[in-house]
Structure formats: structure tokens, C-alpha cells
Amino acid sequence: MSLSPTTGIGRLSLEATAAAPTRANLQMQQSRASSSTDGSEQHSDESDWEEDEDDVISLPSGLNYNISRVSPRTQNVVRELISQASVQGSPQISLELCGIKEESSEGGGIFYAFQMHETVPCSVRIGARNSTRFSVPRCECPDARYRRAQPCKHIVWLFDHVSKQALFDHDPDSDLTMTEMGYPQELQDPFQHISQMRLDVLADSLHCDISAPSRDTALPSRSRVREAREIVAAVAGVGASELDTYRLDLESSYNSDNLIRRGDLEATLFSLILASHSLANWVRAQLNPTDPAVDPFRHLQLRALRILAELDGYSSSLHDPAAVAARQEEGKEAEGPRSVAWAATQIRQCVVQIDKLVSRGSRPLAKSARASAARALVSILKAVTNHNFDSHGGATLDDRNLYMCLVGNHDTGFVYSALDTLVDQSQFIEELEGIMELLGRFGSPASYAANMRGLITRMRSHTTAGNYASTAGSGSVVGASTSGIPRTETPALETPPEEEPPASGSSGPSSGQFITPEVPASASKRGSRGGRGSRGGGRGR
């Protein structure tokens, strides 16, 4: 679909926020899905827009969707989102806040609220007084063009990004099937996927902040603060080996009331990235795929770190009433316990996602990406091995001990089966041997230990073969011990510090705030007649 000549001007720009779908209105969408294909609701000017007739399209997350089974109206919504994403410049939609909310004070369950910020490209058409179609100026914004249509592009955008994180076993080369609800058929129940992952863990992956159930604002999350510092480091040309010690003062000195730090461009960029989700998305999109801030393998490694920290936090709170109350206030108890069973499931999914990215990608990975994938897998295995203790009570050892659940009592191929496609990464042999020593001390299935030894042997063989090939011309054979391959030590995943995110100043947090969506004038008129438009005045949460 091509954009009209006025689209570029529109991007200069109007800004709007949109409330996110809840479980309740997802059910309402299902009841309306059949009516969304009614020909009487089609806009008379659809022929003005050139449409790409391909049935398989790629949404902003990179996932491919087959949209042949949805109505023409829904296809138009999806294609409009694609056409906007293809224009160079700041991303059109960014996610700035999410939270767990209660449907009512009397109960009724919880729902997830997502606050999006949008820079809206609008095409205003003005015709002569005798124009048969545009004698009255008309705006082609989503509210005017797709009023009361489901799904809207915001829902499509949001579920595309949720699917990228939640569908851990999806083959990147296969297509997802778009539904009239705006999410892929494979996602099935989005609410359940978010609940199983836990909203705050998902929020890290979606680069947004999270508010407590009782508040509509939030400080920048620890994940966003870390990411902002890593983005600044990438722009400054700081190498990965220096990343952990680079400008640690940025986090402690951040103040939302003083974003411009005169004489310190790095601190200014850091502050602006935290203050603007749109700017953060834009800068992130310009980075190299190998930069740590956008490295998908490092991201999954950090997710595993977050999951382990959540398990440890849950474990330590069980005998501390004050900690339990604090977790309830933060909404951490609403979705279920963050137990060994939950952590084991989520960490397995991280490993599966890494394996999929390595083995099922559309093109071979670069050397640096393969090294990053191996580093993430070895780090996850090391962290799990170091969790050989009872985190909480349970009927069986698997119920209470993460190591025994994932490694000690079972051979499911955890980690080593994924590393089997990365045997060229022999720089991690020493770390794997260290893990083997722990396996011998803690106990593991004989088959698991044998497979780990086989993996290390193949890594050594790969190193020896590579050394022989590189030195054959000189008539000498170099042994594995003098291969010259750097032996890097991957630090064990450590529990992140419990300190609060940086203070945001006296005027309050810099993140977004859940808002009451503005009711379109047309909806207000319908509401005055008792129509459904009167619902538009509710809180956007």
C-alpha cells in the first residue's frame, strides 16, 4: 500500500495515546468479529489506497503472518500498519507502560493494561466546494477511517510484539495465521500466555515500564535503565568487554527534572532515552545487530537472569510477611507463584528460543552471533547448576530444587542439545569442564554426563581440525592447547541488586501514565442518543 503525498507532512506530527486490549474486551471483539465483515461498514474511499495483495506479510516484530483468512477490513488495517513501518524515521508506535489491574473493587478478576504512544501520520483531504467526495475536509486518521472497527492497528501491533516473545517454539521461517481478533491463531489465548510468562518479565522484553495495580504511573524499570546505558555505550563505541563498567554514574545521577546535562552528551542522551520511549525505539532500531543492547541472545540470557531473580525473591519472601505484602502491592502474586516449576518452564523456553534462532534462521549466523548464543547457553547452564538447593517446600525434589528439576534428575537434553549446533565455539570448553565437575559433585543422569562429555570432545575435535587446516601450509601441526582461540570466562548470572530505580525528581516519574481515551466527537453524538458510543468515556486501563 502506498502512502499519500501528505503522509510525510502528517508525521511532523500529531501525538496520541491508545488504551490496550483487556481480556474482557477481547471477548467483546469475538462477538463483533462476524459483523466486522459487513459490507455496509466498508469505507467508500478504500479504492484510493493501493493495496499489496500478498497474503503473507511481515509485521514490525519480524514475524510473518498469513492474512488470507481475515476480512478485507482487517487486511487493510494490517497493511496500513506495514506501510507506516516501512517509512524511514521514528517508529510510529511505542509501548511505554503496562500494568495489572482489577476489574472492580468487589472482585471479578484481573486484566492487563498496555499504554501505547503513537505518532500518527494523518492525511487530510480538502476538495473544492463542488467536490462530490471532499467538499468537507476529512481526516484519514484511524478514528475517522476505522471507527468502531476491530481490530485496530494498535491491537495488531501489540499482539505482534507479544507473539514474538510468547511463541517460544515458533519456527522463524514459518508463517503465523492472522485472525479477525488481530493476533495469530497460534497465540490462542493471549491473556494466558502473558500470565504464564508474568507481565513484568514480558515488560522487560517489550522495553516498557510496569506500574503497580494501585498506581497509573511508574519509574523507569531497572531493565530500561540498563538498556539505556547500553544504548549510550553503543553510540559511544564502547566495546562489549568494557560494557559492565561503562558510565555507572548515569544510573545514579538520572533526574527526570533535569534531562539536559550540559557538558555531558552521554548523560543527556541517557536521560532522553529514558524520558521518551519513541526516541529509545528509534535509536535502538539504528544499532548494529551485534551491539549488546539489541543482541537477541544476550537478551534471552538476561531474561533467564530475571527469572532466577524472581524465583529467589519469591523464595525469600515466603517467611517474611512484609515482603509478601510488598509483592502483593507490586502485583507479583496476582498471576501465581514464581516457583521452581514456573522458573524451570520459563528457562526451558529461553533455551528453546536460543536454539531456534541458531538452527532455524533464514541465513547463517555471523561468528559474533554464534559466540553470543553459546555464551548465553553456557551462562544459563552455569546459573541453573548453581541453584542446587531447595528454594521452597514441595512434595518432591523436582518441586523445590531447580537444578534437580532441569538437570539432576532428568536428561531432557537441557542446554547441551542446543550447544551441539555450536561446537565451533570451543572457547567455552573450560567453563563446560567446570560445570562437569559440579555435575559429578551434585549428581546427574549418566546419559546427561555422557552427552556433555561428548559435546566437549566434539568441541576439541573441531578446534584441532581448524588448527590443522590453518597451519598445513607451514608443515606444522598445532595442538588444541595452542590454538590461539581466546578462552573467555562467562560470568555467572548474579541476582540483580534490589535497590530502587534512579530517583526521578520531585515532579514524579518520567514514564507514561494510563489515561482516559478522548471520546471522538462522533462517538459523543452517538452517546447522547443512548448508543454504544457512550462507553468511550471509561478509564483507559
From TrEMBL:
Query: Gly residues bias: where?
Result: 530-541
Every copy of the SWIM-type domain together lies at: 124-163
**Residue numbers spanned by region Disordered:** 1-55, 467-541
- Mind listing the UniProt keywords for this protein, alphabetically? Metal-binding, Zinc, Zinc-finger
The question of whether RNA-binding is a record keyword is answered with no
Molecular-function annotations in GO: zinc ion binding
* Polar residues: bias regions: 24-39
| InterPro entries from the UniProt entry | Znf_SWIM
Claim: Membrane is one of the keywords in the record: no
- Transmembrane spans: none
| Compositionally biased residues, Low complexity | 469-495, 502-512
For this entry, the protein name equals: SWIM-type domain-containing protein
Give the species. Answer: Lasiosphaeria miniovina
